[in-house]
Amino acid sequence: MTGHQARQGHAGTGPGSITPDGCAVELYARLSAGTEPEVIRSAVPPGASVLELGCGAGRVTHPLVALGCAVTAVDESAQMLERVRGARTVRSPIESLDLGAERFDAVVLGSFLVHSSEHRVREGLLRTCRTYVKDDGVVLVQREGADYHTDVPREREDSGAGCVIRILSADPVGDGVDEVRAEYVFADARWTQTFRSRRLSVERFEAYLGEAGLVVDRYLTPDGVWALARPGER
After folding, report:
1. Which of 6, 55, 62, 169 could staple 73 via S-S, CB 3.0–4.6 A?
2. What pLDDT does residue 46 have?
3. Taking the model in full, what pTM does it have?
């Protein structure tokens, strides 16, 4: 565990450093990016400037750099940022990010961060997205699938990383929030992560973006997990 205090409802176990929100640095350095970079790349022009919020150990950052994007990668964990290569890195909480007058062709808020259990945190995340996107730019937000909180337990294989990812439970803790328990099993190591996630209908999700001055233009994947939004009125 790092020296920072763990966040309520968030914890992690396993080898190496673990951030206050329960993310294991070594785990996130091992996980594959899957199709996420291609989804993002389909929505931004070649050579686009991309602000990646909550980049972690560079799981998505590195493929985006390889695809020719100029990436500014933001995370509040120094241990995570030490793993990032080829991108400009900024250590900061997303909600209080200060990049002055800089604006980007695309702002990416992945890892289901929009489902934060705390309203003030979600509002801060989306406010940052709106602040740093160009007037003609796009904001790409990853949201949970429709059955994320009900299809449990479940598992899938991350063949690129050589591990099995299991969502063990999603137990209600009040106010529309579930405490989710996940397990990541490799041949040589095992990690667990517990975190809190707010259930969001499509209507509620789009309303929250609207409150931040963002308008959902379309969904980039058939399951509705990736949304493309554009700047609207604040």
Report:
1. 55
2. 83
3. 0.94
